[in-house]
Amino acid sequence: MTTIGVSRRSFLKMSGAVGGALCLGFILSEGGRKAEAAEAKNAIPSPNAFVRIEKDGGVTIVSNKSEMGQGIYTSLAMLIAEELECDWNRIKVVSAPAAPIYVHTAFHIQITGGSTSTLSSYDQYRKIGAAARDMLISAAAQRWRVPASQCRAENSRVFNNANGASLGYGELTEAAGKLPVPDTVELKPRHRWKLLGTRVHRVDGDEKLDGRAQFAMDVRLPGMLTALVKRCPSYGGKPKGFNADAARAVPGVRDVFAISNGVAVLADGFWPAKKARDLLEVEWDRGANAELDSARQRADYRARAAKPGQVYRSEGDAKAALAGAAKKLEAWYEVPYLSHSPMEPLNCVVWLKPGSCEIWSGTQSQTIDAGMAAAMSGLKPEQVTLHTTLLGGGFGRRAVPVGSDWLKEAMEVAKHHGQGLPVRLMWTRDDDLAGAYYRPMWLDRVRGGIGTDGKPAAWLQTGVGQSIIAGTPFAPMMIKNGIDAVSVEGTDDMPYALPAVSLDLHTPEVPLPVLWWRSVGHSHSAFSKESYIDELARLARQDPVAYRLALMDKAPREQAVLREVARMAGWGRKLPKGHGLGAAVHTSFGSHVAQVVEVSVKGKALKVEHVWCAVDCGVVVNPDQVAAQMEGGIMFGLSAALFGEITFKDGEVEQKNFDGYQIVRMFQAPKVDVSIVASEEAPGGTGEPGVPVVAPALANAIHAASGKRLRELPLSRHGYQVV
Q: Of 625, 608, 622, which Cα lies nearest the Cα of 694?
């Protein structure tokens, strides 16, 4: 997700979390629940809700997942088209409305995230395509009065094998749509695939290149007004009073008024709203975060990590094993708060009228957002229509589990204005960086040692960081005995053979909302795990790749990707002076990824020369998209590792825009090579697994090049200039 970003295992745990959402009224209507129950009795949803065939033979496929750049429109279309046997060149994809039939097969709400889109839809969409194909064949067979077994489908036509007669899908769609959905279907075996596993041009590619693609920011409606909100400099603060005289004097300003978390300016367009907002004078109650300070918070985390926390994994006597280790090593790994910073800042359009509410939003969570809008407007769920536009990036930020904060603001503005005009609510980049819902700041203290044979003897780890799940409807299902499953993913299932392990956790309560960020808990766990195992290899004076391989006898897929990436990078070759190679391997979201990074270091000048990546994500739908997601994930993770941090001083975010929250620039981007390891396993995710591996591989490469071990991210903290 690209994405919510929960692991595949956590995703399965979350499938039961809908109970909490139901209590909040997030599932739509009684009629919708009945429809969902009816669908549950039939493993194959009605193809009529997912496939539309026009009279001219054109095929429209309805995506129940949000398209935020990850290519899911193309993947879902390929799954249906493969089984439907339709002409790929005549396919288009549209977003599904918010409705119960489009719920996630495991979450049971309509949502996109956790790199689960292909995983959750793989069988569902193939069955839908196969059912539609069989219904078209049955319709043709009835017209010809022959057995269906005498007919076949190919290239959007049904053929009579006996005499060669054929009918186009457009000629059959009306009759086929009236037939019962088959109880079972036969899916095509892999050796008969024509589309799946091939490199297919993205269905949304052309419109994004020529500007036809519509994001929420592009929506224009008659009489539409634009709203911006002035929020407290410290997150969670409220306005006590304000002077809007100067703001109201700006031409085009329609209204200025307080809402729950700030002061809204409503105007004819963005610029008058922005100018008026800048002129507002607001007195703030700065709230619980008024004195938030990153330096003090780091000191607090270190004090917590010095003491044992809540144990979540214990094997053997780790303390005794550590005491008896031939060599010992203690290391502290630290990562900061991070912003999602999607290219398209948060925004939506709300048109609230008597008896109806229409919304245009690039959301990842349709059920939750539509339910919140119904509750806020006092309307029935079926009176709310949510149009999901294309998303200009999401990375989890557009999947707030208690409802989108920007939509909540838009609903408040529309209700207050009360004139039935559409309202566009917009955030600026500055708003986005200061708007909270960050990746949590995290600290891991790791103590361990090796035996005389160089192998790990003990691994003791204490983690400190906020829970993403606490306070959400998912908490009852995902927090057990005080342990948030997302906080510990990636460490509680390390692939290495460790004879004695003790892992514990502190979960401090900070009045700052945190959220899943692309790769979620893995974004910090991979850094500590893969840095520390590298340090143990160096302590044992052994090759870091060989050291890992020797400890992963029970993790053959991890071994395979590590061997492949070592081959790609020419691991062990002689390097120029000042160059170094670093490796890392990590499993997340059902996929296994290994990376090798090559850097050159000259004083404080750092250049990331090359990144090699090997991925085993199970059965591949579109290799181009897998490679693209690995490449994008590497750049996303590299930006965070090199530059990314959100820090606080006197309650305020210190990074105001991209000048302070830097993204990797084109001249700093390394060459990237991706190899996809063939697999017959079930599909894993690809939107997120490329992200967490690059930071430890980078840090390990810098150590190999310079001898300096860096344990705190971002690396810019250490004075490096990226060239």
A: 608
CB 585 within 8 Å of CB 605:
no
Spatial neighbors of 166 by CB under 8 A, at least 6 apart, are 157, 158, 159, 160
Instruction: State how far Cα 84 lies from the chain centre.
Output: 29
Q: Does a cis peptide bond (omega within 30 degrees of 0) precede residue 714?
A: yes
Q: Which residues contact 116 (CB under 8 A, 6 or more apart)?
A: 6, 8, 11, 104, 106, 589, 685
Instruction: State mean pLDDT over 473-480.
Output: 93
Q: Which residues partner with 449 through β-bridges?
A: 328, 458
What size, in residues, is the chain? 723
Residue 464 has a CB neighbour count (10 Å cut-off) of 27
- Taking alpha carbons only, the member of 261, 221, 264, 427 closest to residue 340 is 427
d(Cα 491, Cα 524) in Å, to the nearest integer? Answer: 10
Structure tokens at 365: 């969570």
Residue pair 474/485 in contact (Cβ under 8 Å)? The answer is no
- DSSP count for the chain of H helices, then E strands: 21, 29
| Contact criterion met (CB below 8 Å) for 238 and 392 | no
Residue among 366, 64, 398, 390 nearest 204 (CA): 390
Q: How far apart, in whole angstroms, are the C-alpha atoms of residue 587 and residue 589?
A: 7
pLDDT category at 106 given cuts 50, 70, 90 is confident
Above 70 in pLDDT, residue 22? no
Contact 210, 385 (CB under 8 A): no
pTM over 0.70: yes
Query: pLDDT tens across 125-184, in order?
Result: 999 999 999 999 999 999 999 999 999 999 999 999 999 999 999 999 999 999 999 999
How much is the pLDDT for 10?
A: 42
Mean pLDDT value across residues 97-107: 93
**Residue type for position 2:** T
Q: Any bridge partners for residue 669, and if so which?
A: none
For 466-604, strand residue ranges (E) read 479-480, 483-484, 501-506, 579-588, 591-602
403 φψ region: left (φ > 0), alpha (ψ -120 to 50), beta (else): left
Please name which of 688, 387, 333 lies closest in space to residue 529, comparing C-alpha atoms: 333
Closest CA to 394 of 348, 431, 340: 340
What is the mean predicted confidence (pLDDT) over 674-691? 97
Q: Which string of b and e fits 302-324 if b means at least 16 CB within 10 Å?
A: eebbeeebeebbeeeebeebbee
* Residue 147, Cβ density class (10 Å: 0-12 exposed, 13-18 middle, ≥19 buried): exposed
Tokens of 136: 């078209």
CA-based nearest residue to 532, from 644, 633, 450, 440:
450
pLDDT greater than 50 at residue 28: no
The stretches of 54-211 forming alpha helices (DSSP H) are: 72-84, 117-144, 169-177, 205-210
pLDDT at 43 (0 to 100): 72
**Which pLDDT value is given to residue 24?**
28
Per DSSP, the three-state class of 141 is: helix
Q: What's phi and psi for 676, nearest 5 deg? A: -100, 120
Helix axes 117-144, 169-177, angle to 10 degrees: 100
Tokens 């790791």 belong to residue? 446
